[in-house]
Write a structure and sequence with these properties.
It contains nine helices and 13 strands. With about 325 residues, the chain is an alpha+beta fold. It is globular.
Length: about 325
Amino acid sequence: MIDSVRLKDVVASGRCTGCAACMVACTRGGIEVDEFAIINDELCRSCDTCSDVCPVLGGSPADEFDNVIAVYKSRAKDMDGQNGATVSGILKYLFEVGEIDAVIGVERDEEWKASPVVISDKKDIAKIAGTKYTYVPIFKAFKDAIDEGFTNIAIVGTPCQVNAARRIKNSNIIGASDKIGAIIGLFCLESFYYNGLCKNLIEKEMGIDLKSVKKMEISKGKFIVMSDEEKSVPVKDLGRYVRLPCHKCVDFSAYYADLSVGSVGAPDGWNTSIVRTERGKEIFEIAKKNLEIEDGSIDAAKKLSERKRKMARER
Ligand SMILES: Cc1cc2nc3c(=O)[nH]c(=O)nc-3n(C[C@H](O)[C@H](O)[C@H](O)COP(=O)(O)OP(=O)(O)OC[C@H]3O[C@@H](n4cnc5c(N)ncnc54)[C@H](O)[C@@H]3O)c2cc1C
Ligand code: SF4
Ligand code: SF4
Ligand code: SF4
């Protein structure tokens, strides 16, 4: 046993992202996660195993692009998604060829409250398509998927979530480390508090009924809300609603993913996709049948990554 659990410092510093990876690591049921992790001191035995999977303690590399194998411009042939639906297209094909038996995704209710969900059938992929700019504890659903008996699970998530997924995969946590079949990352500059973004900004300030919103998008310096009409505000208006842990985060392009997907650097309706591991290469090769693919550029992602690091230094 050790004296202190490092995870407690992460929570105390306000940097806990609320990913819930630590819940997967704790075999004693000693952690609950809502916005952030709460350790139950009565159940905790101070083994510190939970700290080994925490993305904040894992940290980010100095050079976020030193593992890039290939960069593509891509879009799914027959699916709708946030941008080119590359993520949905890949997931669909991985299901079709039996490479995965479940996906951890994020769905939303009619008021855009997001929650993690286990998807086990390709026909349900449309339920998780589209970006929710708020944050969810995706590893709660990963835990459910393991409990339900899935053994080859794809994790899709923001860079911090992907960092945790890689740490779980590289760990020796029995019953979890061997259950991750693919790690797909999303580019991410920041995420937002639900009440701030949805209730204050969209509902009160922009005067839009959340139930009528079909899509939200951050593009070319604007936050765009699409309902029956399209309204937008400058992205800087979102600054006050950025989640605290995002302030110091420096990974933009999901370094620890097998494959990272974003919109920046690609034309409207397309994605920029970065292959980062041999497994990522394999996944892209398998999913090619479902995608249109052209050569891509990493320059715009690099610029946003630099911007993210600058913002983290200044916040
Ligand atoms: C919080 C956030 C911020 C982002 N910021 C940027 C950015 O600054 N620049 C950029 O180029 N791209 C950004 N992205 C990525 C972009 O919005 C798209 O997710 C990406 O381009 C993939 O598009 P697609 O059409 O292939 O997605 P789709 O095929 O529509 O698939 C979307 C996938 O994203 C998952 N997802 C949705 N919301 C969340 C969430 N909150 N947490 C975890 N997973 C989620 C779904 O489960 C689904 O699997 C961000 C994404 C998120 C979640
Ligand atoms: S230190 Fe060990 S027992 Fe305590 S919460 Fe973390 S994993 Fe659970
Ligand atoms: S693993 Fe995730 S939820 Fe747990 S302390 Fe770290 S950031 Fe927070
Ligand atoms: S900015 Fe960082 S901490 Fe915030 S959601 Fe994105 S990857 Fe996670």
